[in-house]
Amino acid sequence: MIGARSIAEPTIKDTVIHRMDPRAKILIMISTVFVAVSLDNQKTMLLLFLIILSGFVIAKMPAIKIKTLVILLVLLIWGTIYSQALFYSQLPRTVIFTIIRPDFPVLGWLTGGGLFVYEEGLHHGAVQALDRLQSFLLDC
Fold first, then answer.
1. By three-state DSSP, how is residue 88 classified?
2. In the 8-state DSSP scheme, what is residue 92?
3. DSSP per residue, 32-82
4. Quick check: pTM over 0.85?
5. Each residue of 4-56: pLDDT tens digit?
6. Could you say which DSSP state residue 31 is in?
7. Which residues have a Cβ under 8 Å from the Cβ of 111 and sit 6 or more positions away?
8. What are phi and psi of 40, to 5 degrees?
9. E strand or H helix that includes residue 97
10. What secondary structure letter does DSSP report for 96?
11. Helix, strand, or coil here: 25?
12. Start-to-end Cα distance in the chain
């Protein structure tokens, strides 16, 4: 069984990524962070995310580490998008479905008028998830 320590340890291989000077890697990481912060379009953020993800493929990470990374990314994406869809506060808001109706006994009042999933929140959550994913991948 592989522990958390072995998943986080770097893999020493002879690839382009591993042969790069550490200062160059730091400069690439810092410039990528600035680009990621300045982007607000879902398509360009997805493109940047795929470019960052390709670095892991080029570095030839072991399959177990890639599986673990995928699980963490899915949880991060789902949590961010869903939380933004629930708690989106800007207007206009389009309700996709209702989780708790405003007239539901006690919970309707406790939630401040019900709990809804908003379409605009899903879009905003997708942008936020891509931004968090890029930060997460750059930290790996």
1. coil
2. S
3. HHHHHHH---HHHHHHHHHHHHHHHHHTT--HHHHHHHHHHHHHHHHHHHH
4. no
5. 555 556 667 788 888 889 899 889 888 888 887 787 777 787 788 888 888 88
6. H
7. 100
8. -135, 10
9. strand 95-100
10. E
11. helix
12. 21
Residue 129 tokens, joined: 């998830």
Phi, psi for residue 115 in degrees, rounded to 5: -130, 125
Signed CA dihedral, 89, 95, 100, 105: sign only: positive
Q: Provide the pLDDT for residue 79.
A: 87
Structure tokens belonging to residue 23: 């200062």
Q: How far apart are CA 59 and CA 127, in angstroms?
A: 26
Torsion of CA 62, 68, 71, 75, to 10 degrees: -130
Structure tokens at 139: 């930290």
Give φ, ψ of 134 to 5 degrees.
Answer: -65, -45
What does the longest C-alpha to C-alpha distance in the chain come to?
63
Written as six digits, the tokens of 84 are 């933004």
Closest by Cα among 82, 90, 86, 94 to 119:
94
Find tokens 């890639």 and name the residue.
66
